[in-house]
Design brief:
alpha+beta
């Protein structure tokens, strides 16, 4: 694999002091050439995927939303016809401007072997045509691709089938003497909170995942894990945050780990296996 670009850490990890109950995260590996929506990433009925990969993209002078979505349709056809073993792909657009990228191309791979095979096929058979098609619309570099190993928290009660959603990423670092056992205990409390919330308010599509970086973060921007929150809408997100703020376990969120504020993205699925 190519050496990882560590800029993504500086990009998403700002100050420590977020919400471990709604933590966010992201880890990444550079591609080597040798619930509807992203809930499919860790659906209970299928094996846990090996990697969620994030690829930085920047808008070019000729960018338009219409051109982007046209390109994603072309790309999805390539993925289908090439029969890549890819579970899901989505576009994540940050709500806050970012100097390093304008949007993320997110791919969910069932195995690292499937990922490597797809990237090799892409480089040999498809990338040249893709660059001709999209060069005036957006750009990307394989050096800015980053991979995380996901583990699902409490699964969504009602899968979001809209194909769009709101995603948050939060980077967390364990405090001295704390570790995975404390995080799992917090996740248990958070799951109980969501159970009680939905018993009162009705079934929802909120769920979360823990993502561990498949690389060594730099010392100046070190973190232990990324907490990712997935919501169907801003309304669902705001309601859950309001209830969480009044919950007993919310006071524990900064005790075991120091976390960044959530980085919020609008998400749209562009490919789903078997669709």
């Amino acid at each position: 694999m190519k050496s990882l670009s560590l800029l993504i850490i500086a990009l998403l990890v700002t100050a420590c002091g977020g919400k471990p109950s709604e933590p966010e995260a992201a880890a990444v590996m550079a591609p080597e050439a040798t619930q509807e929506f992203i809930e499919v990433v860790v659906e209970d009925t299928s094996p846990r995927p090996a990697m969620v990969e994030f690829v930085w993209h920047s808008k070019a002078e000729g960018f338009s939303d219409e051109a982007l979505w046209s390109a994603t349709e072309y790309w999805a056809n390539v993925a289908s016809e090439a029969e890549w073993d890819l579970r899901l792909a989505a576009i994540h657009t940050p709500r806050a401007a970012n100097e390093n990228f304008d949007f993320l191309w997110v791919m969910v791979w069932p195995t690292l072997e499937a990922r490597d095979a797809a990237w090799a096929d892409w480089a040999e058979n498809h990338e040249a045509a893709w660059l001709d098609l999209t060069g005036e619309t957006f750009t990307y570099s394989a050096d800015n691709a980053y991979g995380f190993a996901p583990t699902s928290g409490r699964p969504a009660t009602s899968m979001n089938t809209s194909g769009t959603g709101v995603t948050e990423y939060i980077f967390c670092t364990y405090r001295e003497g704390q570790g995975e056992a404390q995080r799992l205990a917090f996740e248990g409390m958070h799951g109980d909170f969501v159970d009680a919330y939905e018993a009162e308010m009705g079934a929802g599509s909120y769920w979360w995942a823990i993502m561990n970086p498949l690389f060594e973060p730099p010392a100046e921007n070190s973190f232990d894990y990324m907490w990712a929150n997935f919501f169907a809408s801003d309304g669902e997100r705001d309601a859950i945050y309001a209830a969480y703020g009044e919950s007993e376990h919310s006071s524990q969120e900064q005790v075991d780990a120091s976390c960044t504020e959530p980085a919020t993205f609008d998400s749209k699925v562009i490919f789903r296996a078997g669709a």
